[in-house]
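[Q] Does anyone have a clean structure-token version of this?
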Amino acid sequence: MRFRSVILAVLFSTVLVADATRAQTTSQPAQLRSPDVIYVPTPPEVVEGMLKLAKVGLNDVVYDLGSGDGRIPIAAVQMFKAKSAVGIDIDPQRIREANENLRKASVGDRVRFLNQDLFETSISDATVVTLYLLPSLNLKLIPKFQKELKPGVRIVSHAFDMGDWVPEQTIEVDGRRVFMWTWPKK
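[A] Here you go.
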């Protein structure tokens, strides 16, 4: 009788452990793919130049694709008084850093960071889109822009262009280029 009680106890605890493990794995988000680029932070003076070039203001919703540590969305709200800003990054470490920087910035709930794939996440409410991606990724985004962006959205890229789509403006900030286009592509 005692032997049977021990076996039942072992079986019961095995079922509990299996259920707990299954609950942990199903509640975790799906694993995202690896980042397309290595993280290189945009210098603060370039962040400011990008947001000035886009003429970010009170009615703007800024989306930063590949947002890294969150400096562009935070600056858009903190310095340029944007209505809101969203940073999207595939790297969970960058999202942790961005959320820590957001906590320190004290800009309330007007900025949020999403640990998602920028090619999969909707940006349809954006009025400004910022980028610091490679030219090939910028070009890969054009079909997404066609599907999701409304006319008049300003797109600003640090360092990299969009192939044969000629920017409306190009500026230099401390030796770094910043490009700006207005959607739709002309």
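[Q] Thanks! Anything notable?
[A] The mean pLDDT is 86.
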